[in-house]
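A sample follows:
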Amino acid sequence: MNNKKWFWWSLVAVWCAVIYSFSESSFFTGENTAHILSRLFDFWPFAQDDSDESVSPLNFIIRKCAHLSAFAILAVLVFRALWPHRWAYIGAWSFAVLYAATDEWHQSFEPGRTALFSDVVIDACGALVALCCVALLRWRKRLYASS
């Protein structure tokens, strides 16, 4: 394996460790992130008295966007590590979805955490969107290179 492959697979391993550490830590439970957002709303000058009610949808959106982006990054890193294999897109998406499933399974053993199939679906969508963006950028680059 050449040095570039080692580099990309090392980044994949580091990113997988980051995702694992977020799953392992009780700091990133939904309850804790809601509490942090609630504290931030205390300092927000436009917050209303019912800010606790407005934290819940925001907490949900932030947490699901974190899922989307974490697994989008993972898919792109795996794609780069697999490239130029013909099956790099499918391999990257499959790796991301498999890791998402094992991550949710891991969360089922952590106190205060829940394993949700919907999170695996969100992770899979994040990986798919990222890989579609990669494909679009590569297509656009080829298009402009040929003209």
About this structure: Helices lie at 3-24, 30-43, 51-82, 88-107, 117-146. The chain is about 80% helix and 0% strand. The first helix runs from residue 3 to 24.
